[in-house]
Amino acid sequence: VEAVHLIADGKAPRIPQPKEGATYEGIQKKENAEISWDQPAAALHNWIRGHDKVPGAWATIDGQVVTFYGSSLLDASVPAGQELAIKGASRPGLVTKNGLIVFGNDGKMVLVRNLQFEDGKMIPASKYFSADETTALELTEEEKKMAEDIR
């Protein structure tokens, strides 16, 4: 009761909380989530997964910021894929049927499943080189009739 009265009267003591020993981490900002490529695969994986979903770990590919989502460590032989230059990486990534493979400075691999571009468009990483291709939807005669009935 006494504390409530002190607060109501504006006389409650104000003791600032010390910063040392604090465990609270401030809100992560996108500009602080850039991937540093000079580290082992496990650290890359932890960085990507730690920033998944907000704010999203990112790197520059073809001059634009691309955000990486859904990583996992990959312990296998290097699969076949199409090389993708990533700014700052000592070795190009590989776009494979399962996603984008990036390499740590220890030579081990991290598989990234999804990529998001600056415009907000998200694609499976395996479709990076086919992202611009569009396929037209072709309806069968039955589907065309159904579409007309719906209209």
TrEMBL record:
Pfam families attached to this UniProt entry: Formyl_trans_C
GO MF annotations, alphabetized: catalytic activity
Q: Which residues form the Formyl transferase C-terminal domain?
A: 29-130
The superkingdom listed in its UniProt entry is Eukaryota
What protein name is recorded for this chain? Mitochondrial 10-formyltetrahydrofolate dehydrogenase
The upper taxonomy is: Eukaryota, Metazoa, Chordata, Craniata, Vertebrata
